[in-house]
Amino acid sequence: MELKADLHVHTTYSGDSIITPEDLVFYAKKRGLNAVAITDHNQVEGARKIAAETDFLIIPGTEVSSQGGHIVGLNVSEQIPKGLSTDETVDRIHSAGGIAIACHPYALFKGSIGKHVTQKFDAVETINASSFPFRSASSKAEKLAKNFNLPCVGGTDAHYGPVIGIAYTIVNAELNLEGILEAVVKRQCQPAGGSIPLRMRVENQGRFFMKYLKNRRKRVS
Ligand SMILES: [Zn+2]
Ligand SMILES: [Zn+2]
How far is the CA of 107 from the centre of ligand 1 (A)? Predict the structure, then answer.
């Protein structure tokens, strides 16, 4: 069956996201998604907990800061250390049973992996709804995927609930974790959706700033 999965979402466990577990499931359902990958920065705790608490299909993952840039590992439930070389990070993701995705390879201000991508990767995120500048980052990522002959996927890189599902991956698979991962590796997938509208990007920054102020007040008092 044809499924829609946002393969790149951050929760409050990322520190820089305001998406609570409740938000995640609420907006994923509202957008008509069938699955969401939780890819918190350098940790797997949230994904594990949320997956255990909901009947919505969660793909446990993480976004690892390697020396070369950010790498998303899907189906990874153990912590991969940050700061390792690109090669070693991909190897660790594979030995943890996961697949390695070159996320937002050419987005500015994101710790993008660009020229460090190798044939070892399993897929390239050619649509990342948060990336800037969206068009050129996407077309460079498409070229990269073509050069390495790798499957293309899409995700939002959401840090704010209402943007979940603006970009996603269409996969031809059974509705379970293994089915979706296998479909990505076998290229039974295609990225869809587009860029987060400017209005929502501004809203996101505003909400995050309010949360930061609130936490600061709490620490001061
Ligand atoms: Zn990133
Ligand atoms: Zn991310």
Answer: 9
pLDDT tens, the chain, 221 aa long: 999 999 999 999 998 899 999 999 999 999 999 999 999 999 999 999 999 999 999 999 999 999 999 999 999 999 999 999 999 999 999 999 999 999 999 999 999 999 999 999 999 999 999 999 999 999 999 999 999 999 999 999 999 999 999 999 999 999 999 999 999 999 999 999 999 999 999 998 888 888 888 888 877 76
Ligand 1 centroid to residue 167 C-alpha, Å:
15
Termini Cα distance of the chain:
54
Q: Residue 213: which residues within 8 A CB-CB, separation 6 or more? A: none
Output the CA 221–ligand 2 centroid distance in Å.
32
Q: Considering the entire predicted model, what is its pTM?
A: 0.95
Distance 38 CA to ligand 2 centre (A): 9
